[in-house]
Amino acid sequence: MDANGEELAPAVRSILSAARDRTGGEERVSVEARSVPAAFAAAEADGRVPVIAEVKPTSPTTDGRRDDDPVDLARAMVDGGAAALSVLTEPEHFGGSPASLERIRAAVDVPVLRKDFILTEAQLDVVESDVVLLIARFVDDLPALVAAARERGFQPLVEVHTRAELDRATSAGADLIGINNRDLARLEVDLDTFESLAPSVPDDVTLIAESGIASVADVRRMREAGADALLIGSAIMDGDVTANVRRLTSA
Ligand SMILES: O=P(O)(O)OC[C@@H](O)[C@@H](O)c1c[nH]c2ccccc12
């Protein structure tokens, strides 16, 4: 059971137990972050839908695995018009690594989000990135971790899936919020999640729709519901990533 009083999917329990075992960095990092709101505004000014394209070699809900060089994938996504990138650093269930993120961030000039299951302050010190994901459902002291991320120069992206988590995110001072359409208890995706929570998000928050966005119609649907940007993984990783990003950013 977790804080929501709901049993998590076995894959998610395994992810969390691995995350609890991972140590942090030795030294506190200090980041000069590339601005996410500026990157989204630049995409809009250029007529592109702001998309955060995700380098996700595999996942518990994906068949198979992509073994291309993550730097090649990242460059191809930027060529297709991605406003920012998300890079999985979770090694055991998503095929990611902090080293891939470091190489990708050195190779591109868009903001890079570190996608991982960060539970402790020391885990922030593993690698530099422009944005770090903090999952409201799993972080006990959200205000403390949001503050710790900002002290290091990161822009914290707080991920929520319910109204209660959204309230915790806003009271923790989050100004970059992602609504995850995937339910981590059952691993099912439902785009209604974004539509039902978005109206309760304060106007000054930069709001991202996450997961399950597969088509141009899905992109339009999330934009109409108030998404400033979209976080898209599987639909981009499946096939020609440049063409996929181009299609989804021109929606
Ligand atoms: O592949 P999708 O359905 O486009 O989803 C991307 C992203 O939202 C998803 O990978 C994700 C959302 N929140 C997470 C937390 C950890 C790991 C992964 C995720």
From TrEMBL:
The gene is trpC. This is Indole-3-glycerol phosphate synthase. Residues 28-248 form the Indole-3-glycerol phosphate synthase domain. GO terms for molecular function: indole-3-glycerol-phosphate synthase activity; phosphoribosylanthranilate isomerase activity. Pathway: Amino-acid biosynthesis; L-tryptophan biosynthesis; L-tryptophan from chorismate: step 4/5. Its EC number is 4.1.1.48. Belongs to the TrpC family. It catalyses: 1-(2-carboxyphenylamino)-1-deoxy-D-ribulose 5-phosphate + H(+) = (1S,2R)-1-C-(indol-3-yl)glycerol 3-phosphate + CO2 + H2O. The keyword Iron-sulfur does not apply. Keywords: Amino-acid biosynthesis, Aromatic amino acid biosynthesis, Decarboxylase, Lyase, Tryptophan biosynthesis. It comes from the Archaea. The keyword Repressor does not apply. GO terms for biological process: L-tryptophan biosynthetic process. It is an enzyme of class 4 (lyase). It comes from Haloplanus rallus. HAMAP family: IGPS_A. Pfam families: IGPS (PF00218).
